[in-house]
Design brief:
The protein has 450 residues and is α/β, with parallel strands linked by helices. It is built from 18 helices and eleven strands. The chain has a nine-stranded mixed β-sheet. Helix 1 crosses helix 5 and helix 15 runs antiparallel to helix 16. The protein starts with a helix and ends in a 6-residue tail after the last helix. The model has no long low-confidence stretch (mean pLDDT 90).
Length: 450
């Protein structure tokens, strides 16, 4: 039976890959026509509705059509094939079935669709305000523990893994890990400075790695935070990735200093020209290296970013996500295993990349035990009370929940100084949450929601 399933899975991957190869040669008109065929063969009504919505966007010349054609026509064939296997077959189809099956087992629960792992916090840069800057640099999750965690995740239905840090490419053995787990899609956040021609060719050959490169604006802004010469390294890395046909994106952190620049047409158009297919926006949170509340974007700047992302989605040929302001899309906060969780370089299982406390560690417990912990269950329960999904975060929107969760029995802060957020800047966070609520509550009235 297992042998038959493997043959069927292989045939499905080959069929979709070959189909995408044929699609890449079709005209725009015929590409749109294929959505009618897709609608006929799918069995589920919500899939049919989604396909009709996609066709409507394509017919109206939506920028997403440009991204779709780029994936078909400009991506390295092996990269495209592996993305089909990892994202479409494994994460969506096989992973979805496994997650559902896991939820139906005795004592089971519906597991998240992805996890974030920071295998190392070592880095050759010294960026001010780095959220991970206060973790110990000598701790690395071992290759063996990473291997086991990935296998545990796959058993639960997780075939999409985000790699953060530190600088992930600082660890040479991680490429071996990505290649060994070729059935997983790895989204790797990197500063880009180590992405040389040789490494990028290996990334293209592996096919299951999608880099996201950190950038703070143009040369002046990026080098100010990340060090002189870093911007030029980023531009060269993007050029090489584009040349090799590897899908890649950007990652920008909004601070009070660069808020206007990274929400400008000039910035976004430049990234599109460099070859970015997708991008992430984050907001500076006063944790990690030398927390500075003066860098936190004002409530008005955060609201401007929310509007900007909506504008980009309707006008630019790039897929953009906003970690803090996209709660209306994912139903609120995704932390604590609702949709994701974070494993830091010591193996601590944290609710979120920005929640630096834990009750379990992968060195002596399974990720299932961590996901089913009192800590994670408390946060997931609190999430249900946050009905305005434009302010979902337990750090900057509901800091009382953060303080209560971090003080639970058996919970510990995961690095020195992490408790600063509940001691020295608690009043700031309370005031910030109150002020931003004025923007978010007004905006929430204009969204379609139950």
């Amino acid at each position: 039976m297992l042998y038959y399933d493997e043959i069927r899975r292989f045939a499905l991957v080959q069929g979709i890959h070959n189909g995408m190869g044929l699609l890449s040669k079709l005209s725009d008109k015929n590409l749109i026509k294929t959505t009618h065929w897709m609608e006929k063969i799918t069995k589920r009504d919500h899939h049919k509705r989604a396909i009709r919505r996609i066709r409507e966007l394509f017919e109206n010349g939506h920028p997403s059509f440009v991204v779709f054609k780029k994936v078909l026509r400009e991506t390295h064939p092996r990269h495209r094939k592996r993305l089909v296997k990892t994202f479409i077959i494994n994460q969506l189809l096989i992973g979805g079935n496994r997650r559902k099956a896991f939820s139906e087992t005795p004592g089971g629960f519906y597991p998240p669709g992805l996890m974030v792992i920071s295998p190392t916090m070592r880095c050759d840069l010294n960026c001010f305000g780095c959220y991970a800057g206060s973790y110990a640099k000598g701790d690395d999750v071992s290759f063996e523990d990473l291997d086991r965690v990935l296998n545990e995740g796959k058993e639960m239905g997780m075939f999409f893994v985000v790699i953060s840090g530190g600088e992930p490419f600082f660890r040479k053995d991680l490429m071996d890990l990505y290649e060994k787990h070729h059935d997983i899609a790895f989204h790797v956040f990197t500063h880009g400075g180590l992405l040389d021609k040789e490494l990028i060719k290996r990334i293209a050959k592996a096919g299951n790695i999608l880099p996201a490169i950190s950038i703070e604006g143009f040369e002046e802004e990026t080098d100010r935070r990340r060090g002189k010469g870093q911007y030029k390294k980023i531009m060269e890395a993007m050029r090489l990735l584009k040349e090799e046909g590897v899908l890649f994106g950007f990652s920008s952190t909004q601070t009070r200093q660069n808020a206007s620049l990274i929400t400008s047409d000039a910035f976004m158009d430049h990234l599109v020209d460099m070859g970015c297919s997708m991008g992430w926006y984050f907001s500076y949170i006063p944790i990690g290296r030398e927390p500075n509340v003066d860098l936190v974007p004002t409530p008005e700047q955060r609201d401007t970013l929310r509007k900007w992302v909506l504008h980009v989605r309707n006008t630019k040929p790039i897929l953009v996500a906003d970690f803090w302001n996209d709660g209306h899309i994912v139903g609120g906060c995704i932390a604590a295993g609702r949709k994701y969780f974070h494993i830091n370089s010591k193996g601590d299982v944290e609710p979120c990349v920005f929640n630096h406390f834990a009750s379990h560690n992968v060195k002596n417990s399974s990720i299932k035990e961590a996901l089913d912990s009192n800590l994670f269950k408390y946060i997931r329960s609190a999430q249900k009370d946050h009905t305005n999904h434009l302010r979902p975060c337990i750090i900057i929107d509901h800091p009382k929940v953060y303080r209560e969760a971090s003080s639970m029995e058996g919970v510990y802060f995961t690095h020195e100084g992490a408790d600063n957020i509940v001691l020295e800047i608690a009043d700031f966070l309370d005031n910030y949450a109150e002020e931003y609520a004025k923007f978010a509550d007004k905006a929430w009235e204009g969204y379609d929601h139950p």
